[in-house]
Amino acid sequence: MLRTGIIVLLALGFTLCGCGSNSPQTINGNWTAVLTGAQSFSFSATLEQGNASDVSVSNLALLTAMPCFNSSFAPQSATYTSTGVVNGKLTGPFNLTITTLFPGQTQNLLTMQGSVSGRTITGTWTLTGGVSAGCGVGSGNFTMSKN
What we know:
The structure is a single chain. By secondary structure, the chain is mainly beta. The chain has a single domain (28-146), classed as Lipocalin (Beta Barrel). Helix content is 12%, strand content 50%. The chain has 1 helix and 9 strands, in the order H-E-E-E-E-E-E-E-E-E. An 8-stranded antiparallel β-barrel has the order 1-2-3-4-6-7-8-9. It is globular. Mean pLDDT is 78; it is low at 12-23.
């Protein structure tokens, strides 16, 4: 009977150890975004949360051709405010803006607003400006996945 009790306690201990992790959940890492709607395109970026809600965006790269942006588009900024971890998933509102740098012209502006749930960000996007040939205003939905 004692041996059975010890085995049950050990099994329970191993089960509890596997249920959680002490590693902090963060938005930091490489992400891939797929935008659908009036125009469809995708890009990848590295996100790193600094102090408070500031998120730095680096390594931004288009994965599909888009007339509104080229390989040298910038600057970009993002904000994310964690509302905590719910059922093991990081949560909170997310905003990302990307603009072109055309001197003396109206800039193309991509705005993404959504929410984080673990390794996925979903929401809506809008595009304004339309300075580039073939680039118009538009909107749609997006999904970002952490690689």
